[in-house]
Amino acid sequence: MNFLRFAARRLLEMAATLLGASFVVYGAMYLAPGSPASFLLSGRSASPAALQAINQQYHLDDPFLVRYLRWLGQVVRGDFGRSITYRTDVSTVLADRLPATLLLVAMALVIVLAAGLVLGWIGAVRGGATDSTILVTTTLAIGTPSFVAAVLLQGVFAVGLGWFPSSGAGEGLGDMLWHLTLPAIALALYLIGMLARVTRSAMLEALDGDHVTVARSRGVPERQVIGRHVFRNSLGTVLTTSGLIVSTLLVCTILVESAFSIGGIGQLLELSTTTKDFPTVQAVSLIIVALFMVVNLVVDLLHPLVDPRVTLGSRRNDA
């Protein structure tokens, strides 16, 4: 029952937050200079009648609140409007672009979790020169922006060695995995360093705990001490960081998709912002906000499972 009440309360909070975000997302584009009509006219002069027809078609001459409520009602029904740039439904454009972005984020997340956890584990357990080497490596990774990593990987492994494609998302699952390998690594590099450091710090803190000393004094094998008493007690911190990692991946994918011309929603958002494609920008922004909130909800629901000291609705440092 506590789980259901907590989930219901969080869903209500998400709905309220999403409503507020929708108002900000819808209104923000109208604060920028320019208008969709100017893009549609492509710099050509137009008669007042032609300009009025464009404004009526896209409801640009209606009061702001009327436009927002009309758009919100359409969004609730799953209708994000019609793209000004592509002259088709935004939902159709998103359906074509979203799979590549989701696959890219999923691949990058797998790479981050695998490499970050392993490096953090090794650094905390081995110590010495191994730990120092990992610290230097992760520092370099953290200091390398995603777009810089994208350019370097593209120049070496795509253009120089020819091992991977230099652009595009591919067609079919196998081809997409091949095309998105370099972009996923570029997207994951910075976050690997961050997760490795967080894992290392959490495990070092757990290694100093009394429960570890007691387990060792009882003759528990070191492998079990590390796995059950150290790493498991570090998972709460790692899980919280993983939520931040997913959110960061969703944001940074814009840069990587542009570098590799992947054609996902990140590149779509960049292009739509440039061309004042209001319906597309609003839809993509709202989807990203919704994904952020879903990630945070999943982290909150999983936290008590990996760390029994945390209860639903509480934070670890409040316990």
From TrEMBL:
InterPro entries: BPD_transp_1_N, MetI-like, MetI-like_sf. Residues 98-299 form the ABC transmembrane type-1 domain. This is Peptide/nickel transport system permease protein. SUPFAM superfamilies: MetI-like (SSF161098). The keyword Repeat does not apply. Pfam families: BPD_transp_1 (PF00528), BPD_transp_1_N (PF19300). Keywords: Cell membrane, Membrane, Transmembrane, Transmembrane helix, Transport. It is found in: Cell membrane. Belongs to the binding-protein-dependent transport system permease family. The chain crosses the membrane at residues 12-32, 100-122, 134-164, 176-196, 238-263, 283-306. PROSITE patterns: ABC_TM1 (PS50928). It is a multi-pass membrane protein. It comes from the Bacteria.
